[in-house]
Amino acid sequence: MGLFNLLFGQKGFTHGIHPPYHKDTADKPIRRLPFPPQLVLPLDQHIGKPAIPLVVKGQEVVRGEPIAKADGNFSVPLHAPATGRIAGIELMPTPKGPKTNAILIDVYEGSTQEVLWEQPRDMSELSPQEIIQAIQDSGMVGLGGAAFPSHMKLAIPEDKQVDTLIVNGCECEPYLTCDHRIMLEHPKALLRGIRYAMRATGTEKAIIGIEDNKMDAVELLKSHLSNGSPVEVKAVETKYPQGSEKMLIKSALDREVPTGGLPADVGVVVNNVGTLAGLGDLLPKGRGLIERVITVAGPGIAKPANYLVPLGTPIRYILDYVGYEGARTEFILGGPMMGPAVSALDTPITKGTSGLLVLNEPSIEDESHKIWPCIRCARCVSACPMHLNPSMLGQLAAKRKYEEMAEDYHLTDCFECGCCSYVCPSNIPLVQYFRIAKAINREQAA
Ligand code: SF4
Ligand code: SF4
Q1: Engineering a disulfide at 43: which of 50, 116, 320, 360 sits with its beta carbon 3.0 to 4.6 angstroms away?
Q2: What is the C-alpha separation between 297 and 274, in angstroms, rounded?
Q3: CA 36 vs CA 77, 318, 345, 346: distances in Å
Q4: Closest Cα to atom 2, ligand 1: which residue?
Q5: For residue 367, how many other CB atoms are within 10 A of its CB?
Q6: Which residues are [4Fe-4S] cluster 2-binding (predicted)?
Q7: What is the CA 67 to chain-centroid distance, rounded?
């Protein structure tokens, strides 16, 4: 148990790591990025079925207008982030890797920041089911990175009962500070979003869990709550991966999600602060998600800060705007622990992109980054928050015994946090092995 938990009598999760946090942009207010000349909007920027286009090449669209509809319940619509003309629907690179169909919008020069399409509604009139429908219509997904459709997450299955909404304000990944800024700059929208989510899920209590390196956000949110409020703000230990659902549930409520289970199995539903602040803003106005806050940072960035970015903005445009340098650079979308590295600078910012990091890529000749054999030091075992044996899993992966990894060593419990790779003195890319093994097992199961 960490010092924080001993001092404050809390039951945090065991294991985890303390990487350098580099939260240098935490004091930088959110700034709006201008529109790029062209926006690239992949139809599958969420988990679930891709959206179905509602527009054709040459059609004019206005800022906020729906341009693709949800394909059934496990899907969300897309809205135009800027006024312009549809340039086509083409295969384009995405943060997920392979190219997928995307709607391209040529943005009109001088396009207004005003949202020209909205359907305001009285939220006090809506039933829980109507709130869920309004959330799907907004196109909202988990903005923390998962991009899981928010209406699906907040629709509690009939055979489950939840009593607590946990609001995830941990932002435990190094560099990222966009959630921190949202809590500081949009506390009212966040608290509105929390109320809508509580009504939708029928929960009577909410806990906002925030790492204790953001005490200004803890104090500010507390100052917005009255005595007897069903919403509580709780500082939790700063430790990676505190922001993963299972870890935060353990820290905030001392409940453990069973192997293969979901938060609802222990009466909890978890949502990220950015997602709920977004819902608090969009739902009463009847608008769709067209922009998001991302942290742009890293040693190669000239103007690190938090930017409000139109969805679909290519990362090349952002890099040109903020300025970057470095001969050997690596571009990461999200945090450095779990975010994917991208090579194509045409890749757009999508709903699940929380950051753009420009890091110095290690040279392949650099001795300190060579991969060495496992020395059985067990550091990976001590770091794994899921209490797995990454060393053994790594050895099985090297022998391509993927099924055995899943059946005997609980590979499916691995949520790819990267703690094991981070501490390994032999630089064994354990988490990359596990991603490959899980993908192969998924393919075989399908
Ligand atoms: S990546 Fe998987 S195995 Fe490695 S520490 Fe995280 S949960 Fe454990
Ligand atoms: S940390 Fe690396 S070297 Fe140590 S036991 Fe784990 S895999 Fe082996």
Answers
A1: 50
A2: 18
A3: 22, 9, 14, 12
A4: 414
A5: 6
A6: 384, 414, 417, 420
A7: 23
Cα–Cα distance, 254 to 166 (Å, whole number): 12
Residue identified by tokens 């941990």 is 170
Distance CA 336, CA 243 (A): 14
Cβ 380 under 6 angstroms from ligand 2: yes
Q: What is the spatial distance between Cα 188 and Cα 231, in angstroms, rounded to a whole number? A: 13
397 contacts: CB under 8 Å, gap ≥ 6: 405, 430, 433, 434, 436, 437
- Which atom of ligand 2 has the smallest separation from the CA of 381? 6
**Hey, whose CA ends up nearest to atom 6 of ligand 1?**
417
Closest ligand 1 atom, CA of 393? 3
> Are the C-beta atoms of 79 and 139 separated by less than 8 Å?
yes
Contact, 358 vs 330, CB < 8 A?
A: yes
pLDDT tens per residue, range 75-110: 999 999 999 999 999 999 988 878 999 999 999 999
* 3-27+119-285, CATH topology level: Rossmann fold (3.40.50)
Question: Residue 367: its pLDDT value, please?
Answer: 62
Cβ within 8 Å of residue 218, ≥6 positions away: 210, 212, 233, 235
153 Cα distance to chain centroid: 14
35-114+291-360 belongs to which CATH class? Answer: alpha beta
Distance, in Å, from the CA atom of 331 to the CA atom of 339, rounded to the nearest integer, reads 10
Q: In terms of CATH, what superfamily is 370-445?
A: Alpha-helical ferredoxin (1.10.1060.10)
Pocket probe mutation, ligand 2, options 381, 391, 430, 431, max atoms within 8 Å of Cβ:
391
User: How high is the pLDDT of residue 3?
Assistant: 56
State if residue 398 touches ligand 2 by the CB under 6 angstroms criterion.
Answer: no
